[in-house]
Every structure is written in C-alpha cells, then in structure tokens.
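Work package 3, deliverable 3.1, input record:
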Amino acid sequence: MTKQTLLRVENLHTEFRTLFGVVKAVRGISFEISPGETIGIVGESGCGKSVTGLSILNLIPNPPGLITQGSIWWEKEDLLKIPRKQWLDIRGNKISMIFQDPMSSLNPVLTIRTQMKEILQYHTQKTAVEIEAECISLLNKVRIRKPKEVLSQYPHQLSGGMRQRIMIAIAIACHPDLIIADEPTTSLDVTVQAQMIDLLRDIQVRTNTAILLITHNLAVVAGMCQRVLVFYAGKIVEDSAIDDLFAHPLHPYTMGLLKAVPRLTSLDEEPLATIPGSPPDLIALPTGCTFHPRCQFAMQICAIEEPTLQTVKGRKVACWLYDPRNPGRLAE
Amino acid sequence: MINDSLFAPLPKEALQKKEKTRPSLNFWQDGWSRLKQNKMSMIGLYLIILIALFSIIGPFLVPYTYQNIDLARTFLNPSWQHWFGTDELGRDVLVRVMWGGRISLTVGLVASFINLVIGVIYGGISGYFGGKIDEFMMRIVDIIYSIPILLIVILLMVILKPGLTNIFIALGLSYWVGMARIVRGQILTLKEQEFALAAKMLGATNRQVLFKHLLPNTIGPITVSVTLMIPNAIFFEAFLSFIGLGVSAPMASWGVLASDGIRAINAYPFLLFFPAFFICLTMLSFNFLGDGLRDAFDPRLRK
Amino acid sequence: MALATYLIRKFIYIVIVVLTVATLTFIMAHAIPGGPFTREKPLPPAVKKNIEARYNLDKPVLFQYFDYMKNLIRLDLGPSFRYEALTVNDIIRQKFPISAVLGFVAIIIALILGIAAGTISALYPHRWQDSLFMFLALLGVSIPSFILATFLMYVVGFKLGWFPVAGWGSPAHIVLPAFTLAAYPMAFIAKTIRTNMLEVLNQDYIKVARAKGLPERIVLTRHAIKNAILPVITYLGPLVASVFTGSFLVESIFAIPGLGKYFVSSIYDRDYTVIMGVTIFYCVLLVGLNFLVDISYTFVDPRIRIVKQND
C-alpha cells in the first residue's frame, strides 16, 4: 500500500539575521506526514524544532527571520509559493497550531468568546447562533466545565491548564487535517500534562487528525507518536519508528538522549547519564558533523565532513558510523 | 577521497580546542557593542562631544568676550568678523552662544547629578526596606508627582530669585521623583532575586547589600534616565529664562539668548537662530543617545 | 462595595494632595524676602500699613494661613494683589475657558496624529514611513515649544501668511498655537505607541491570531492596537499637564488672552495671590483628571480590577 502524503517538507532552510551574525536555525529539513499520523520532533532547546513548526505555517517573524530555501508541499501546492490570501485559508483551517505557553497565547484584553468565535467566523459560514453553540460544544470536547461562564471570562481569570484546553479547542475548531503542537505540555504542572496528552490522544483517535508534536520530553513522544524525528543543530539526525528508536537508537545523540531519561526501574545506583558539552552555537557551528565535539564515537572524518541522512535497515540516520565506507561500521 | 584512515577515532584533545564559543561580554562591553550598531546614537554622542568642545574651548579662540559692549557696532549681520553677528549692545553673538553653551550644559549636568543622587538614595531606601517605610516614602513621591514639575520649579524660582545656583536648587529639588520611582521599582524586583538573598545570608549588612549588590544592577535604566534628564534640564532652564526667571545679565544661557532673540525676531532673525539651533541640536543629540542607550541597556529587549 | 471604598480612598488622597499643595504654596509665598509690597518705589508707610491691614498681612502668619485655608475650602482664592478690583476666581473664570479650548484642540491633535503616526511606524519598521515619523517625533521632543512657536509664527504666519500671527477670536487663530502645544505630546505618543506596538506584535497571542488564519487587518485592529493603546490612557494626565504648562509660553508668544499668559505676567508682576491661586487651580484640575483616568482605565483593561488593587 502506498502511503498517501498529507504534508511534505523538502530541504527547508530558515535563518535569523541578528546583530552577532546569521543564526542558521534550520539547515535542510525534509520529512513527510501521512493523514492521521502522529510524528514527534525531539531535541534540545535551540535545535530548530519550534522554528520548523512556525515555518510550516509561515509564521516566522520577518525580519529577522527568513525561510531561505526549500518547499512545503500541501495538497500539490508549495505553501512557500502561494499568495498571502491563500495562506489565510490554510492557517487555522487546514493546519492549526498549539503553542507552548498558554499564559501568553491568549489575548489578555479579549474574552474567551471573542477569541474562539473569530476562528469560526473566518473559516465557516455558520450563523452567530450556530457559532455560539459550536463554541460550547468545543469547550465540552476539551472537558471544560461550565463552558457558558468560561466564554465570558478573560484569560487572567483562568488557570494554565484551562487556558491550554481552550487553545486546543481553538486548534480543533475547524477540523484541521494537521495540528502542530509546539511543546503543548512543557509549561504545565505534571498532573495537568498527563491530562493534556490524554486529551490530545483522545481527539486524535476520534477525528483522525495528523499531529506534529514538538517536544523535548521523550516520555510524551513515547505515549503518543508513531514516528520520531530527532533534531540536532537544525538538522534531522535520526528518523525512525518509535519502537525501533527506543529499542535500538542509532545516532549517538539519540543514545545520549535516551540514557538521560531517569528510570525508576534501574536498581543499582548508577548516576544519570548526561551528554557532555553544550548545544552548539548556531552562529559558529562546528565543522563536519555538528555533534562531533560531544560525541564519544567521534572519528577523524566527523570533524571534516557533515554526514547526510542515509537509510539504514529501513530507518534513517545521519552518522558516519553507519556509512558503508566505514570499515568498522556498526552494522546492527 | 574518503579512505579508511578518516574513520580512525578522533583524539579527545582535538575536541577541546574545536569547541568554539563566542567571547562573553560584560555589561558595559555588551551595551557598548549594541550602542555602536546604532548609527543615530553614535552621531548623537559625537555631536555632544563637539558641542561641549565648542562651548569649553571656543571662548579662548574668539577675540571677544561675552561682556564686550561696543555701541558703535550693534545688530550687525553675521560676517567674517562676527560669525554669528552682534546683538543690541554690539556684543559678539558667537562668543555669547559659546558661553551660553557652558551655562546650559552646566545646568543640564549639575541638575541631573543632583537628581541622580537624591533619586537613587531615596528610591533605593524606599525599595529596599519596603513595607511601611516604602508606603510612606512613595506617598510623598505620589503627591509631588501629581503636581506638574514646571509649576514647582516656577514657584521655587519666584521665591529664590533668578540665578544659576537657584536654578540648580529648584531643578534638583523637584525633578528627582521620576528617578526615585525608577530606582525603587528596580530594587523591588532585584531584592527578591537569589543573589541578593545569598549576599544577605553570607552576612552582608543592609547598606552593603543595597549599595554593592542591588544598585549596581540598576545602572542600565539609571544611565538612560540621566541621559534623557540632561536635555530636560536644559529645556527647563530655557523655559525659565523665557518667563524671566533664568540667569541674570551679563551672563546668558542659550535660553536667555533665544528669548532675547524672540523679541527681535522680525528685524534680526539671526539673533534667535543661533541659540535656538544649538538648543535644538543639543536636545536632539541627547535624545538620539538616550534612545540608543535604552535599546542597548534595556534588559527586556535582550535576546 | 469595592468600588465605593476605592473612590473614597482616592478622594481622601486628592484632598490631601490639594491641602499639601496649598500649604506649600502658602509657605513659599510667605518665604519671599521683603514681602509682596516691596516695589521699586517704596509706598508711603501709611498706605502700606493700610494695604497690609486689608490683606491681613499685619496678622500672625498662622492666622493668615487658616484664613487662606478657610477661604480655599469655600473655593475662594482671594483677591489679586496687583489689581485690587479683581479676585483670583474672576480671573480664572474669565481666562481659563480660552486656555481650555486651546488645550482641548491641542490634546485632540496630539492623540489622533500621535496614535496614527506611531501605529504606521510600527507596521513598517525600519522603512521610510517609520524613519520619517520617528525623525519627526525626535524633532518634536527636541525642539522647545517657544522655539517652535516662534518658528511657526515667523514662517507660516509672517512669511507665508497662512494663519494669523497672534491674537484670539477665530478658528484660524487656534491652528498655530494648538499645533505648537500638541507637538511634544504628539511626538511622545507616537514613540510610545510604536514601542508598544512592536512589543505587542512580538507577543504569542499575535502569533496565535495569525495562526488562526485571521486577515492581517483583524490581527492588527482587534488583537494589537487595543493592547498598544491602553498604556496611552495612563499618559493622559501628564499630557494635560504638559499642555497646561506649555500654554504659559504659547499663549504669551501668540498673545492669547488665556490663563497661561496671565499666569506668566503675574510672575513678572510678582502677583502672589494669583500665582498661588492659579497653581492650586491647575493642581486640583490635574489631580481630578488623573482620578478620572484611573477609574476609566479599570474599565478598559480587564486585567486591572479595583478589587485587586485593594487587597
């Protein structure tokens, strides 16, 4: 069965021009999402995962940000080439987005009603009465009690969890084909985090919406995604199905990430592993493989040339360890 | 091109050197490098230096003094002999403008300095001790703040009689409330931060915490506010001169020269033009610099 | 309930401010060496004594103070020292309406043009519109009003002859002085709005609004401008203050028979009761206005609720 493609990102490059130089936030990202699929993007902060999400919706602030190369295919159209007007029909309607911080994602001087209504007003032909009813049903869907009261309230009167539920309600209002969730749980309490993940999974099962879940939390990915893209310094270093990734991480960075997750099951008192060094400076990237200064397997070539994403046993990884020319290749 | 030797392990020592980081800058270096990027601010800074040189050194290079009266040569248009012309008593306008600059700049600097000292101490104490003391001190500030500063200055000047020292006193006594508010706000947030608590835990006295740990951290906003206060003081002095409460003859600030010029505007516009030009240029330069400093030192705008 | 306590508190505060101001002005007026009747030509002692008796100047200072305060509470600011037939109340009643009209026009000009220029600048950052408006705004805050007034009078009034140079009476007379008065606050508002707008446009909720697929027009009008303009409301108090104090110069230069011009001439004349009275009048006006601004702000911005301020 050939998989149908919903969104295909090809060779995306996004830069920010700052006082100190050009920050190459995304340096040639390519991936695909099928309808109904849930893909996770993981990586440290500053690895370009949020920028990728914003680039898909063309929400990169310009200046200083700029998409310099690449294409984003959606229904046979390159989103980077369509006129501005057409964008409005995609955003919120076909692709919607949930942001990291629910505290700042809602406009403080407008009621929840105004902020929910507007998305329906612009993307549907519904009457005012229908829209009001739809808002209430959406709030019910995200399990908010007393939706009528909440609609007339202002954001500062609601808790963080409530606000994030409202953001989710807004995101699903127009039945989009894809939801980009940028760290939707990071700024919430742990108990609320679990509820949010639960809610998202539930919505996904019911509506069969594709979700691009951007997070640094591997546990969240494990709970929701079928496939994972591991980002490092603006590139994908590993692209793999979730079970394979957890069972046999290929890239040394992925190995490090997995080891850095605390486990309750480990009996001996071994200290929690960390990845040595710090994330690279995106203005002055290391030569060769950007991970080599922190890599325990670093070879001569790693400092000279950057590896490309190659298929290894049905999975993709960008690492010289798996290069066919490597005599000591890790062939597992 | 790619051969087996390239796949040999990379020695760890090579890694240490490879790890590049940008040099970290301290507060002033960081601010200065931002300021240098801002062309308008740098122009402002250079203009201020030029104007200061003009006023300080200028009078030594001109063969007249500000009080040389020559009734045979009144109201002369600008010429090679008198670049800026002469006034109703035949005095050279160029040298008077230079002297005016000395006075106006002095007013700006001294008044700002007085404000700085009163404002920082008052705001620092109020913010640091908080509670009832803060409440009481800020009520006083609120009351002063709700009266237009200019009215206070005018009242003080009416009582104190015109003169340079009294202008310092009047401006100094009335303008510090803004600075006190800024400093207090900064201290209020800073004192809750870990470094202040840490200093206290290590046994620093109140005075040490306030002056060594907290106030140095408010230097950014204070610098900006002082830079913007100088042109304000110059403006107030000009205003006072205009309503007859400025420095007295034969000395003359730019404000006095300009308001004298206004009275002769139709016949001899140049008498207004030169002092007015210097007032505007100075205010503009300080505003340019102040805006740049705010962008450079305002931590909220940092990324 | 909460509103009532808030209002009462604020009112008490206003009374304290006014009494403080009155006391301070009184002390200042009496600290003047020589007293108000020291003129170039000394008055005959008999006349002087007579006058002093009339104004209670021969009584103890404390008596004078309570006398003045008693009158103040009855809203009576007393007679003018120089022009005995006039009371300060008469002067204010006569002259203030003119200043008020002028000030009102100036405030409207400053608000409309300032907000427009600031918004446009923020929407086209670092383009020519922005550079132009921000340069004008810098000129606006840098040129002292008396220089701008003289410049406009000389160029637009005298040389070009578009508007009358001085005087009061027709709408054309208002244009130059109102514009002069508006220049500084207009520039300040434009700069503030621009900064606020740029800050607001960087907020997450603007990103969210765009991600909803709203047209840019709606993003700006509904989501950005309201948030950017709100802080300007708090500037209304200082704005009015700046227009009042500006009127001292502008009315003098344009020969407008308003309270500002009268105030300046009473400073020249050392007409102490007028100086005191007008100062108190302006303070009451400003404190009252600030009070109104505070209240209206709580209604416009949902985040600020009076209840919260109280506890």
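The mean pLDDT of chain C is 79.
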